[in-house]
Design brief:
Blueprint: E1 8-13, E2 18-25, H1 28-45, H2 54-78, E3 86-95, E4 98-104, E5 108-113, E6 116-119, H3 126-132, H4 138-142, E7 163-168, E8 174-178, H5 180-183, H6 188-195, H7 201-214, E9 221-230, E10 233-243, E11 246-247
Antiparallel strand pairs: 1-2, 2-3, 3-4, 4-7, 5-6, 5-8, 8-9, 9-10, 10-11
Helix pairs in contact: 1-2
């Protein structure tokens, strides 16, 4: 509802079980470039990831994030108007009744299972460090003036160390991959309520974006919702970015 440009990018490929959300930074043009580069590189690098073993998939996700980091960082060195750009990235890969997540920054992946919502990733942010140290409560962190300050991103330095998370997938699980334009505006309790809706995945995405915009829409909003209807099959995936109160995708 505030920003005139959209620096978020996303990728959703149901047959491959591959879903990516990236939230760029560094100015309108540069942030958009960084997030787009990350999504394109990851979607290409992981195009055959669904057939890999768990160990190989972990290695490929990590290497792909590091390659995206190198490509973006090199561009900041050669183009003056791209200096300082970077992006958060969340990669969700569903394969063989397992999930694998690669994560850098403060975009998030959640899983709703049996009515309980769990945040699977941990933010790389100043306020998260303060929460870990016991200085801030999670609620105080949400409204802290430095809540948008991240401590790790793709493209800012010569190398990056992504966090990797893995676990089992069960029938009925719902995954949410989202930029902080959603999670910074809508608390976990409300996210859980919306994700439990029996509406289509696309309608749930629309409802999530409308909720964030209704609370002020201070940032670009991107959400991907994936429902697992059977083991080995992810069905009903939908993603949509939003800027200026409009959504699509």
């Amino acid at each position: 509802m505030i920003r005139t440009g959209n620096e978020d990018s996303f990728f959703s490929d149901l047959p491959r079980g591959l879903f990516v959300v990236a939230d760029g930074m560094g100015g309108h043009a540069a942030g958009e470039v960084a997030s787009d580069m990350a999504v394109r590189i990851l979607s290409d690098e992981l195009r055959d990831a669904s057939g890999m073993t768990d160990d190989v998939a972990r290695e490929r996700v990590q290497q792909s994030l590091q390659r995206a980091n190198q490509a973006i960082y090199q561009r900041t060195l050669t183009e003056i108007d791209k200096q300082g750009m970077g992006t958060t990235v969340c990669v969700l890969l569903l394969h063989d009744a397992h999930y694998l997540i690669g994560h850098v920054g403060d975009s998030r992946v959640y899983m709703l299972r049996d009515g309980a919502l769990r945040q699977l990733t941990k933010d790389h942010s100043y306020v998260q460090e303060q929460v870990d140290a016991g200085v801030l409560t999670p609620e105080q962190a949400r409204y802290h003036p430095y809540s948008n300050v991240i401590t790790r991103c793709v493209g800012a330095n010569t190398d990056v160390q992504p966090d990797l998370y893995a676990g089992e997938v069960k029938r009925g699980d719902t995954f949410l991959v989202a930029s902080d334009g959603l999670t910074g505006m809508v608390d976990d309790r409300r996210l859980a309520q919306l994700l439990q809706s029996r509406a289509t995945a696309q309608r749930v995405v629309d409802a999530l974006i409308a909720e964030a915009n209704g609370r002020g829409g201070l940032d670009n909003i991107t959400a991907i919702v994936v429902r697992v209807l059977a083991l080995g099959e992810a069905s009903g995936a939908a993603g949509a970015p939003a800027s200026d109160g409009k959504n699509g995708g």
